[in-house]
Amino acid sequence: MSLRTAHTSAPVLDTLAERWSPRAFDAAHTLPENALRGVFEAARWAPSANNSQPWRFIVARRGSESFTTIEDTLAGFNRAWAGSAAALVVNLAEVTTEAGDPQPWAEYDLGQAVAHLSVQAHAEGLYVHQMGGFDREAISAAFSVDPRFRPVSVMVIGALGSADQLPEPLREREVAPRTRFDLESLFIARD
């Protein structure tokens, strides 16, 4: 068990207990051509309402123009560390169908797809960190995103780096013990 493994109150899959969201990524690590195929396959098979599969992704490898475009939309705190990851991925939810009907569950379903992706990535030895601090309008404009799709989050994917490469206070947060609310506090009601 690593120092980053979650201390759970009930048994969970090792991959879930070991998964965490680092900020220190190895800037020398690159992803070979089909390295992300498995993680997106896991996302593809996530459950969705009416099998609508309302998720789409913009994938950019470090060194590409698209990577720089996405990186430039990140909030300053995220921009301080995310550029060392091997890839940036924008997660988009199809909130309206082609016929114009709303899909109020789209963001929930996208979340399931990204959760599947992050667990698969961890099982493949990659790390994922999701971020909400970015300019959604700038992403939509830069990639000519159809208005039916809403950018919801950006994630970084890559190999783990050293916490020593991070500036304070990010370094301190990187090595701090993992914490979560107590399990019982999650329930509003329970029979």
TrEMBL record:
Domain Nitroreductase span(s) in chain numbering: 17-65, 78-158
GO molecular function: oxidoreductase activity
InterPro entries, A to Z: Nitroreductase, Nitroreductase-like
Keywords linked to the UniProt accession: Oxidoreductase
Signal peptide as annotated in the record: none
One matching Pfam family: Nitroreductase
Transmembrane segments: none
Family: Belongs to the nitroreductase family.
Protein name: Nitroreductase
Source species of the chain: Leucobacter luti
Lineage: Bacteria, Bacillati, Actinomycetota, Actinomycetes, Micrococcales
